[in-house]
Amino acid sequence: MLDSRFTTSMSRARDVRAGVASSGLDGPALEQNTTAYRVTMERTLRSGITVAPQVQVSHLAVNAGTPYSTASVRLDFAVPLLRNRGGSLIRSSQTTVTRLLDADTHSYLHARSAAVLAALTAYWRYVASFARLEVQRASAKRALDLVRETEVLVGADERPPADLNHVRGNLAVKRGAVLAAEQDVVVSRADLGLVMGIPREQVFQLQHPAEALPRPAPVSTGEPPQSLVTLALQNRADLAAAGALTRASAVVEEAARQESRRGLDLFLSTGYTGIGQGHGYDPLYSSLVSNVRGLNMSIGLQWEARFSNDHALGNVLTRSAQHEEARIAEQDLARQVEVHVEVGIEGVQRSSRSVMEVAEAVRLSRTTVENERIKHRLGSATLFDVILAEDNLTSALLAEVAAQLKYAIALADLRYQTATLLQSDSVLSVERLNTLPPPAGG
Question: What is the pLDDT of residue 128?
Fold first, then answer.
């Protein structure tokens, strides 16, 4: 049932009129003083029926007679027969609120998942910044080793002194790259702290990452695209929110149609009337139980018709358009989810192959560097050949980090698109950072 409404009132009235005598209206004036007290409680049930018990006591004092008090105890019913029949408008309001709450709940869950994805992406970038820093430091170390090796060769008169300028210049470039990589770590740490929402003083106290960038399995079959699309359509919280909004707008539209209908209400009333005589408050109380002769009954119909119903009809058209808008938005979101899942699957598959290809490039580049160093010692390769091989290795290592980062972000995004990023208890497990989503129903 809905909330009850309690009202109480008190009134006092004085009525003076001409008295009636045998010769006409020239008798003494009649003065009547009435004091009335009324208490009413009204409650509308879910069925739409309004129940209103009422108690009213009145005291009448007339200058030409004995004062008396009357009491009326009634129980009124109002039953809608057309508009709001069966409590349809009440149920519509309650259903709409429930579905809007459901939509807000799912929107919150989706926003939380999106926030986790943003934090996870920032974390992987933070991990990648350390990996790039290690690559640049290793490159600078190889450049330093080349400088020392060249210094030994120049000291032994096996290489011209001019070679030192090349290797030392190359070392300066590599040290500059290390400084840039260190700044990249600072920036990525700040980005991660901002996304996490931690206080400013804690941002730059973040420790080194505990997890390495994920590596794909040597052979990754993956799941059929339609299976993951079905999984996403079943689990996406934003899609559930859109569906709840569509259903809520449908209820609002139907309620507007109900509001536009003519009104026909049935009124029923039953009760009794008591009366008491005398001065003071005692007759007021005694009239509630004195001189009661039987039950009073009444029945009536109230018909409401509007000469112009433009406002209600316009409201129906507005609510209908809003329902259609919500339905189209839900369908469009479902279409976007399907497309994003398939794009995410392609992204994971291609980034996985990219990691494997770049890993092979790193292996070959390491072999090339070793070969060029041996050839340089034997005099069959120039210093530029060694530096070029070293640079190619550094580029391959940086490309490997970039490929691993793309794979990690693609995997996290696919988890997000299929609503499998978080566990049912809202925990982000390490396993989910490194594995593909399970098939629908799996």
Answer: 96
